[in-house]
Amino acid sequence: MFSSSQDYLPAFVLPLVDLLRSGGPVVALLLILSVVAFALVIAKLLQFQLLRVGRHGPSRKALDLWLDGARSEALKRVSASKSVMSDILQKLMRRGLHASTDTTHLKEDIERVCNARINMLRAWLRPLDMIAQTAPLIGLLGTVLGMIEAFQAMQGAGAAVDPSVLAGGIWVALLTTAVGLTIAIPISAIVGWFDGRIEAEQAEMEAMVTAFFTGAAADRGTASVVTLDAQHAEPRYAT
Question: Considering only Cβ atoms within 10 Å of each terminal Cβ, which end of the chain, N or C, has fewer?
């Protein structure tokens, strides 16, 4: 019945059916993990796209405007952007316009906000990493179980062992390890790529927040440094 139903399956599904038939439940479990991993990768890519991860041009321009004194224009630019970095700068700029803002407390609190944003970007990476680590082990387990079954069959056959049957059992057993590695290798590479993007975003956050409080004195030479004065509604410039 199962073989006759294959006639109604799409051509691209047939290799999967043969793979499941040869590898058994271990391959079925690995294929389920691959589907979960694929869904998580798509979700992360969409998240990075929506949060504009890696797109720092508008935020840098807004920070330059702020340091040049065009605070309204700078706030307008970061408010219009949906990136993670623009959201952090928007919080800094809105608080920087208030006379009662305590610089020390603002630095500590913006660090909390940055950590929360980084943790948000790291969401779902742990399951992906777990799949990448466990898939080869699951495949190896399937190989060990298949080898045990093959050698049990050889022992039961005694002297009448058919080498072709034994070889067939061994390659089927090795199939699960191959499937596990096929899943784990690209997932590991993708997780590394996501980690690299997040680390770059974290470094950019630290650089922009520091520049906001110091006025980017190192880049601007003798330019004025923006400081917050509790007695004034506007930031003052200290040379």
Answer: N
